[in-house]
């Protein structure tokens, strides 16, 4: 799955497609951490805040306020992308400069997550 996402990401000229690919990977990482914390599969959810809340009941995540706010922002932007009728509305928020900043912050969050919980 990650290779398909990476290929799509690299071919994507539309910056919103890149965002969706990165969000998909971020959800997978949080779900992997959930599985580690609970020793069972993560629930079927696209809500990053819910996953983080549940994980933090078993693992000290120690998210900074800045990362916590960014996760809330990502959650708000990513959930509507699952529903075609909302996608047109949300894509208006994906201007190239704004989305490049979001992609960088998401990359930083992924790196933090992987370093923090490296096994």
Description:
The structure is a single chain. The protein is mostly helical. It has one domain. The protein is 72% helix and 0% strand. It contains six helices and no strands. Helix 1 packs antiparallel against helix 2, helix 2 (15-38) packs parallel to helix 3 and helix 2 packs parallel to helix 6 (96-116). It starts with a helix and ends with a helix.
Key structural traits:
119 residues, mainly alpha, 6 helices, 0% strand, globular
Number of helices: 6
Structural category = mainly alpha
Number of strands: 0
Q: Describe the biggest sheet?
A: none
Which stretches are low in confidence, meaning pLDDT under 50 for 5 or more residues running?
Answer: none
Alpha carbon gyration radius: 14 Å
Q: Compute the separation of the termini in Å.
A: 21 Å
SSE arrangement, N to C? HHHHHH
Strand-residue fraction?
under 5%
Mass-distribution shape: globular
- Total separate domains: 1
In short:
The chain has 119 residues and is mainly α. It has helices spanning 2-11, 15-38, 48-56, 65-78, 84-91, 96-116.
